[in-house]
Design brief:
By secondary structure, this protein is an alpha/beta fold. The protein contains seven helices and nine strands, in the order H-E-E-H-E-E-E-H-E-H-E-H-E-H-E-H. It is globular and about 45 Å long.
Length: 265
């Protein structure tokens, strides 16, 4: 079943963007107390997600979410209910560059300076989450969609000791900028790549045009580097589905609680 998300920037939709859902807004109206997504008053703009029935005595896993193209940190409000309403705390920083063609639209710059800035924003968000919530220090995951997923894998490989895993939904594996300079430590970092390969006829050069051939090239690259990769393939052309998000929850839980992952929700 496809589950689609509401655009957050007021801009017109492109093929690579997530598109509107009729159910998300109603769900949030019913769960406002349980899911207080909050905006930042600090230098790093962000949104936060608190799980339902939050227990301060329990150390929660943390998901740091990097939004997709032409979006912003409020994407977290729609993503986390599809992953889990109770298993993780989550926080999302704003992208590093403004998209001039869209109101409230941001991107992740893949330049040297952009990568460094993204790393700083993620580090700030982790610190903010730790101040507000009881976060397990060894259960911090970085995840994202499309270009956000590519940046999530890059930052995971840049700072492997900070994360328990890095997750990309439909974002190609990054290249360049000395990606594997910490290769021995990166080999200890679990990676998840969830992909619905682009269908024939997609526009060449579209950020969503992640073909099966490109997927297999990325898998070979990671395999040759000796990295720990879980690859999840979904029917071609489905883009984002509820199953993809549910599988993120299962994969995260499996990293530290394998016996209970199948029963988590």
């Amino acid at each position: 079943m496809n589950r689609t998300l509401t655009p957050l920037n007021g801009a017109s939709l492109t093929h690579s963007q997530i598109v509107p859902s009729q159910n998300i807004a109603n769900w949030f109206d019913r769960q406002k107390l349980a899911l207080p997504a909050q905006r930042s008053t600090t230098a790093t703009a962000h949104s936060c997600f608190a799980p339902m029935h939050y227990e301060s005595g329990y150390a929660y896993p943390l998901i740091v979410w990097l939004h997709g193209p032409d979006s912003n940190e409020d994407e977290l409000r729609q993503v986390m209910p599809l992953i889990s309403t109770r298993n993780q705390v989550a926080i999302a920083p704003r992208g590093t560059g403004r998209v001039e063609s869209g109101v409230g639209a941001y991107r992740w710059d893949d330049s040297v300076d952009g990568i460094a800035e993204a790393g700083e924003r993620v580090a700030d968000c982790i610190a903010i989450a730790k101040q507000r919530f009881n976060i397990h220090p060894d259960r911090i995951f970085i995840a994202g969609h499309s270009v956000g997923g590519t940046m999530a894998h890059r930052l995971g490989m840049e700072f492997p000791e900070q994360f328990a895993g890095a997750i990309s939904l439909g974002g190609g594996v990054p290249r360049g900028s000395r990606l594997l300079k910490h290769i021995n430590r990166v080999r200890q970092l679990p990676l998840l790549l969830s992909v619905s390969p682009a269908i024939a006829g997609d526009v060449e050069g579209d950020v969503g045009n992640y073909s099966l051939e490109r997927v297999m090239d990325d898998v070979r690259f990671l395999h040759c580097a000796g990295l720990s990769l879980s690859l999840q393939l979904y029917p071609a052309g489905d883009e984002l589905t509820t199953v993809m998000f549910e599988d993120i929850d299962n994969w995260v839980m499996e990293q530290f609680c394998p016996s209970n992952a199948s029963t988590a929700s």
